[in-house]
Every structure is written in structure tokens, then in C-alpha cells.
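Title: Request for sanity check on DNA-formamidopyrimidine glycosylase family protein prediction

Description:
We are preparing a figure and want to confirm that the structure record we downloaded matches what your pipeline produces today. Could someone re-run it with the sequence below and paste the raw C-alpha cells into this thread? We only need the C-alpha cell string, no images.
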Amino acid sequence: MPEMPEVQGLVDFLRRKLIPEDGPPAVVASLEVASFSVLKTAKVPVQSLAGLQVESVDRRGKFLVLQIGGLFLVMHLARAGWLRWSDSLSTARLKPGKGLIALRVRFADPGTEPGPGREPGFDLTEAGTRKSLAAYVVESPDEVPGIARLGPDALELDLETFTGLVHVHGGQIKGLLRDQSKIAGIGSAYSDEILHAARLSPFALANKLDDDAVATLHATMHHLLRTAIDAASGRPAKDLKDTKRQALRVHARTGEACPVCGDTVREVSFADSSLQYCPTCQTGGKPLADRRTSKFLK
């Protein structure tokens, strides 16, 4: 799932493409919906964006937000979604229900008549059978339920506010880091990476952590996310996934050697997700059995 650093990388990339420093902003030529499940709103017709100029490209948590004229195109890439840019999209029209492409957005130079052609633009794609990719056309980003529920951005949390969140959370620390209503922008991968770098068990109870552990976790969260954002900055959209994979130390590294201590990275599986951790670095050398029966909470 794309998380804060990758979405910020997409924001930076799209800004360069759509709002260039040496020219006028791009204008939407047309939108094609190939998967009707991707569009989550009906109040504003999707074609209302045609002919409007791109005003800004921003991020809210893990949401990508394009202001286009007085409207907003908001996208959430979910678990298996991605944005694929082309400087010259095919003239062929999308066939509904065929292939990985769910939504195509074409752009034209300002002053030209909007319409199909070999315009630049992007496709939203989604692999797999679970269709969670979402696009919204709204008058305000706050109309999107997921954005309305967002807590503060992880990088905007100061230590005092973060400590307050941790101390009142009765569940496991990994769950708090992933809870978008509490801390926006972190998902499964970066929560694994942050906890590994902070040497904390993913099953540690948040409200049992002492102030030193919380301070270390806060500093680690900021450092790791900023490092990942810096690594993503300036890269083409097509390279962002590989940049993320290469930097991961424990997430999706089950069975490999921990780069810090050499122990074997282990995994805990759930019904529809999993987590990875290093026993030596995080749980005193003892493996976690599962989320219900493990006794190793520190």
C-alpha cells in the first residue's frame, strides 16, 4: 500500500508535470472511467473537470488531492492501487471492466480544445480482486469521509501531542501508528520499519511505554518518514515503488537476515494482513506467536 512517502513522491512528481515552473498549468482534457467501482461520488459529474485548469497538487494523509478549477479530484490508492503517468497516452478509449486501469485522466495545453488525442496524463490502476481504489470528485476535500476522519499528519505531531496519544491508547502500539484517525500517513510497512528502528515490539501496549520509549519512537517516526520522503523526492512515479522496497529493513523481508543484528526476520499473519519484525532487536530474542496468545509485550 502506498503510504505517506510514496504519496508525497507522487505529489512532487505531478506538480512538476501539471504545474511547471516554466509554463502555465495543465488543463484537464477528459476523464475515462473503466471501473465504475473506483468512483465514490455522484453529486459532481466527473466530466465537470474537463476544461478546468489544475490549481494545486497536495497530500492529505495517504490521499492525493488535485484542485482543478473550483473542484477537487481526490484519490486513495488503497492496497494495490497505483498512478501510472504517460507523456503520450494512447488514443484508444478504455473498455469498461477490462484490464488493470480503473480511471484515466488526460491533460491538454491551456487554450486548446479539450478532447481525446495523444495527450499526457495518468492512469489509476489496481491489481488483484479486492477493489479498494477510490476516486472522488468533490467541491471540498472534507466531503471525502476518509479525509474528514483523519487525525494530524505524522510529521506535524510534536512530542507532547504524540505522547498524549500514546498514553491514552489502550491497544498495541502498531495499531496506534496505523490508525488514520489518530495519526495520518503511516500504514503497515512504515509502522513495521519505525518499530524496528525504535526497537519496540509491535505488540507492546501503547499506554505501558515510558516517556523515554515514547520520545525515541517519536524521533524515529519523524526521522524515518523524512528520510523516505527525501529518497522519493525527484523520482519518476514509476520508480517510487522500487525505491520504497529497497529501503525496507524488515517489512516484507520474512526469512531474511536483519541488517542490524543478523537474526532472521519473522512474521505474524492475520486474516488479511501480516507484520514483520526482528526478535533480537524488538522482542528480546523471543518470537511472537500471534496477536492473541503472545506474552511478549515489551
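Thanks, this matches our download. The domain at 154-248 is CATH 1.10.8.50 (Helicase, Ruva Protein; domain 3).
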